[in-house]
Amino acid sequence: MLQFLTKLDYLLRETFLGLQRGGWMNWAAVSTVTVLLFLFGISLQASWQLERLVNQFGSQLEVAVYLDPGAQLEMVMPAVKKLPQVSEVTVISKEEAWTSLVKELGISEIAAATEYLEDNPLVDELKVKARKSQDVPILAQKLQQVPGIDDVVYINEALQRLQDLNQGLGWVSVSITTVLSLTAVAVITTTMRLIAIARRREIEIMRLVGATTSWIYLPFILQGMTFGLIGAAIAWVLITSVGQFLSNLLANGPDFIQFINKEIQPNILQLFLLPLLLFSLGGVVGFIGSWLAVSRESLYLEKS
Predict the structure, then answer these.
(1) What's the whole-number average pLDDT of the chain?
(2) Entry pTM
């Protein structure tokens, strides 16, 4: 136990000493990792939110059906209910729609508004809910063929655009993450190589007294991983702060914006998964960068 504590104390002291000697290059490495992980986390969170929004819209998709002005509701309803894709039909009469519209416009006298327009300009409407979101396009096509129906409206196009946007965001996220990961690895490699060069005399002395290569360079590996973990912590704080700010901002918006804000909130699994991914990626980037620097320095010393 005492031997283990002695080795641990040595590793921590050497790692801290390396961080002190790094100077401003430490901040260059940490800031690069922070930018990488911040953009990675933001894009990942946006992808999750878009996916939740798509799923939410997909589970509540319904088709709005508007009847011809002269069509009889009793004649259209049976034909609509017979369609196999239909799970539920809600009737909104033109009188109900007109009353709701007049109230939304702030007009107190419904009769006066009706008299001014000479008649109720609206038509009867049906809200037809499909059994599955995949059935919506087929259902809309069949509804258009039912006699007495004038127009069919559904948001499949908007849903498809959200899906395309989510897919495009995924590719952009992968590209940015790849480029910035290579940049972060290069910066960490350069930083660790400079620190190793500054300590060459100490390393040569340690080699002469019998220290193994892995034991000599392990503090450098730990130092590089420290860069990644610090960058992950800063990125996590920034992502959380930005998310909280946007959530508070959208909470004071219109009802539809508040609905979207509520639906795109991350679940418990995502709240734990995001920091885990950030710290894992940060640690891996730091390990790779420091390992490359150590490998190059070790190879140089062996040749010399």
Answers:
(1) 75
(2) 0.62
194: how many CB neighbours lie within 10 A of its CB? 15
**Residue 159, number of CB atoms within 10 A of its CB:** 17
Q: What are phi and psi of 184, to 5 degrees?
A: -65, -40
The residue ranges of every structural domain in the chain are 2-58+159-303, 62-154
Considering the domain delimited by 62-154, tell me its CATH architecture: 2-Layer Sandwich (3.30)
pLDDT, one tens digit per residue, over 21-47 is 666 777 888 888 898 889 888 888 877
Please state, in angstroms and rounded to a whole number, the distance separating the CA atoms of residues 34 and 285: 11
The DSSP bridge partners found for residue 149 are 67
Is the Cβ–Cβ distance between 165 and 270 less than 8 Å?
Answer: no
- Give the separation between CA 238 and CA 173, rounded to whole angstroms: 18
User: What single string gives the DSSP state of each residue in the chain?
Assistant: -HHHHHHHHHHHHHHHHHHHHHTHHHHHHHHHHHHHHHHHHHHHHHHHHHHHHHHHHHHT-EEEEEE-TT--HHHHHHHHHTSTTEEEEEEE-HHHHHHHHHHHTT-S-HHHHHHHTSS-----EEEEEESSGGGHHHHHHHHHTSTTEEEEE--HHHHHHHHHHHHHHHHHHHHHHHHHHHHHHHHHHHHHHHHHHHTHHHHHHHHHTT--HHHHHHHHHHHHHHHHHHHHHHHHHHHHHHHHHHHHHHTTS-HHHHHHHHHTS--HHHHHHHHHHHHHHHHHHHHHHHHHHHHHHHHHHHH-
CA angle at 167 for the pair 136 and 142, rounded to the nearest 5°? 10
Going by their DSSP bridges, the two strands 62-67 and 125-130 should be labelled as antiparallel
pLDDT-derived band at 300, boundaries 50, 70, 90:
low
pLDDT score at 238: 92
